[in-house]
Design a protein that fits this description.
Blueprint: E1 2-5, H1 11-20, E2 25-27, E3 34-38, H2 42-52, E4 62-64, H3 68-73, H4 79-88, E5 93-98, H5 105-108, E6 113-117, H6 122-130, E7 134-139, H7 151-158, E8 164-167, E9 178-183, E10 186-191, H8 197-205
Parallel strand pairs: 1-8, 2-8, 4-6, 5-9
Antiparallel strand pairs: 2-3, 3-7, 4-7, 5-6, 9-10
Helix pairs in contact: 1-6
Amino acid sequence: MRVVRAEEPDAVATAARVLRDGGLVVFPTDTVYGVGAAVDRPEAVARLYVAKGRPLDRPIPVLISDLRQLERLASEVTEDVERLAHRFWPGALTIVVPAREWLPREIVRDTAAVGLRMPDHPTALAIISAAGGAVATTSANRSGEPEACTVEEAIAALGDAVDLYVDGGRTPGGIPSTVVALEGGVLRVLRHGALDPVLIERVLQERHS
């Protein structure tokens, strides 16, 4: 287990290298601390479940660094998804979309879908970008326990199960992202979080105005 400060010159490159090599990295986001694995390393994603004690039927969301990743990871991108992504990314909204077939089962489980989000945090975006633009990431805590808002809380929860911790201070948000899916053009809120669903509905209603 190693801890680096986010402002250290080689912090981003070190984190990206650990991810590419199949390791787990904890890093700050705009909501809470996340623990990530490379999207193309199924064995690393599997370690996320072990580290967190996460039920195996729960998919792992993916954080992205730019909108181009939407086409890379989603098999279908509707106009509504594009509308929400352009309005709320980077930010605290996770959008569940149909997954590309190449994404490993360790990420999608039995859902054939993937939750995508672009975090509004410079360190997170830099690490994700350096690691290829997408990192399978879930909150850096044991399942069912409070989310970590400091690197110390993440270390206390996950310890040596993680290879590298990037300390970016206390996260500004402290509340997990709101998770939504669009089913037949109808918004379904899967998890209430930092973004008010009323604001999301308002953006979707603009398509009819």
